[in-house]
Amino acid sequence: MARPSASGAFKAVDPRKPPAAARSNRAQDRSELFDEKFLKTLEHLHMVSRKVFAGNLRAERRTRKVGSGIEFADHRTYSRGDDFRYIDWNLYGRLDKLLLRLFEEEEDLSIYILVDCSDSMSIGTPLPKLHYAMQVGAALTYVGLANLDRVAIIPFAGKVIDRMPPARGKNRIFRVFEFLRQCQIGGQTDLAECMKTFVTQNKRRGLAVLISDFYDPEGFEQGLNTLRYNKFEPFVLQVYDKREAEPNLHGDLSLVDCETGETKDVTISRSLLEAYQREHESYCKELEAYCTKYAMPFFRTHTSIPFDELVLKIFRSGGFLR
Questions:
Q1: CB atoms within 10 A of CB 1
Q2: Stretch 197-225: mean pLDDT
Q3: Spatial distance between the Cα atoms of 10 and 121, rounded to a whole number of angstroms
Q4: Nearest-angstrom CA–CA distance, 123 and 277
Q5: Handedness of CA 157, 15, 241, 30 (dihedral sign)
Q6: Predicted TM-score (pTM) of this structure
Q7: Distance between CA 234 and CA 210 in Å, rounded?
Q8: Which end of the chain is more exposed for a tag (fewer CB within 10 A), N or C?
Q9: What string of DSSP letters covers 243-270?
C-alpha cells in the first residue's frame, strides 16, 4: 500500500505479505489481546501511577469552593446572595465580619480515549497497530478509572464508529475489554470530520487522548484544532510500524492502498526508498512540531516497543496524570 499523507509522505506495506483481507482478519482477532498477563501489567502500571499521582501533580486538580470539601483552605468576604450556611460564625463573633469558609475540592477529570480503527491500523508487527493502540488505550483507561476519573472510549475512522459512555472505577475495565474486542475496523481516516462529531457529542471538556497513525490525506491540523478550539486538551499518540518508516522493498511492484484500494505501479530503487524514508520522517516531525508549537503532549512509538514502556514514559512526562 502506498498513500500520500498531507505532507507528501507515503505509507508502504510489502505486497508480498498477506493481502488486505488477511490483515483485516488478523486485526479482528482480539481474543487474546487482554489476557492474564496483560491484567498483571495493568496493575503494575496503576501502582506506578499512584506514586506519581500522589505528588505535586495532584494539586493541579484542586479548586477552592464555598461549602464542604476535602479540607479547609481559606476564607473570603461574604457577598449578597451567598449561602448563610457557610458563614464562619466563630470568626464573626471575634472580628464582626461575615466571612465564608472555602474548602479545597478535587475536580473530576474527564478522559476521552479516541482510537483510530481505520483500515491502515490493521498493519503492523509483532502486533497490528490497532491492537497496540487498544492495549495502550486500555492501560490509560485503567489508570484513569482507578483514579476515579470519568473515562470514555471513542473508536473512529471516516466517522465516529461507536462510543463507550464515561465510566468510573477499576471494576469497569472488563467492560472496556469487551467493548474494544467488539470494535469494528475499516474505512479511511478522516480526523477533521471525526473530531467535529466528537466535540458536538461531548460537551464536558477534558483530556482527549488521540491514538492514531495520522495517515490522513487531508492532514492532521484541522482535527487537532477542532479539539483545541472547543477547549479540549489534545494528547497525541502516533503509532507506526517499522516497515512503514523503513520498507524493505525492491524491483517492479504494485502497491495497494489498503483504505481506498487504489493501486500504484512503481519501480523501487535505493534512491526512491531513501527519498520515501526522508518524506515519512519529515511528516512525523511536522506532526511533532505542530504539537509542540501548541503545547500538546506528543508521543511517537512503533509497535515493536512494549506498550507498558510507552505508558510509563507517558506517566513520567506528567502529561496524563492530573
A1: 25
A2: 95
A3: 15
A4: 18
A5: positive
A6: 0.79
A7: 7
A8: C
A9: HHHS----EEEEEE-TTT--EEEEEE-H
Closest CA to 27 of 167, 180, 175, 162: 180
Contacts of 274 (CB under 8 A, 6+ apart): none
Q: How far apart are CA 151 and CA 170, in angstroms?
A: 11
Q: Which residue has the cell 534512491?
A: 271
Hunting for cell 496503576 — which residue is that? Answer: 46
β pairing state of 263-268 and 251-256: antiparallel
In order, the DSSP letters of 125-193 are SSS-HHHHHHHHHHHHHHHHHHTT-EEEEEEESSSB---EEEE-SGGGHHHHHHHHHH----S---HHH
b/e per residue 118-153 (b: at least 16 CB within 10 A)? bbbbbbbeebbbbbbbbbbbbbbbbbbbbbebbbbb
Lowest mean pLDDT among 58-67, 272-281, 312-321: 58-67
Dist CA 266 CA 262 (whole Å): 13
Q: How many helices (H) and strands (E) does the chain have?
A: 10, 13
From CA 202, how far away is CA 189, in angstroms rounded?
A: 20
Cell of 168: 468510573
Domains and CATH numbers, the chain: 2-55+108-317 (3.40.50.410)
Q: How many residues does the chain have?
A: 322
What mean pLDDT is predicted for residues 205-218? Answer: 94
Q: Which whole-number Å values give the CA distances from 307 to 48, 106, 118, 138, 153, in the listed order?
A: 15, 30, 20, 10, 18
Residue entry with cell 516497543: 305
In angstroms, the CA 125 to CA 147 distance is: 32
Instruction: Extract the C-alpha cell encoding 307.
Output: 506498550
